[in-house]
Amino acid sequence: MNYDACIKKSIEYIELNLMQKIELKDIADNVFLSKYHFHRVFHSVVGEPVAEYIRRRRLMESANELLNTDDKIVDIAFKYQFSSQEVFSKAFKRLYGISPREFRRNGNNISIMTSKNKITSQLSMAA
User: Fold this and answer.
1) HTH araC/xylS-type domain location, by residue (predicted)?
2) Under CATH, which architecture does the 4-116 domain have?
3) Which of 14, 26, 89, 94 is the most exposed place for a label (fewest CB within 10 A)?
């Protein structure tokens, strides 16, 4: 069975809800699959677990905000559903190798290509 449409729809749901709490059950219900089956399909097609995908997308959006706004780092952290600035900073540094403060101060410009577009293009090529 081809799950490309389910994955595209689930990614759209995630993208629209990055600033809200996202439950696996809600995404799975949105594409009419069980949580267990959806997680397996998503991981197989996208190449990473749903929670990792969501965390990475939130970090990518927050990196964009660090570069393009003067919002406080703690406000950006809470906006993207991180429980504290420390949790956000650790996750940010793990992904980008630099703290959010250093990232903003140095004006480092990273490639902030949305994973949604990357996955969509991968699915189109597979069709």
Assistant:
1) 8-106
2) Orthogonal Bundle (1.10)
3) 94
Sorted by where each begins, the domain ranges of the chain are: 4-116
Per-residue pLDDT band for 2 (boundaries 50, 70, 90) equals: confident
Give, as one character, the DSSP assignment of residue 83. Answer: S
- Helix, strand or coil, per DSSP, at residue 112: coil
Q: What is the pLDDT of residues 78-107, one digit of tens each?
A: 999 999 999 999 999 999 999 999 999 987
Q: Where are the alpha helices (DSSP H) in the chain?
A: 4-16, 24-30, 35-46, 50-68, 73-79, 85-96, 100-106, 115-126
CA distances for 110 relative to 2, 42, 44, 103, angstroms: 33, 26, 27, 10
Give the Cα separation of 119 and 125 in Å (integer). Answer: 10
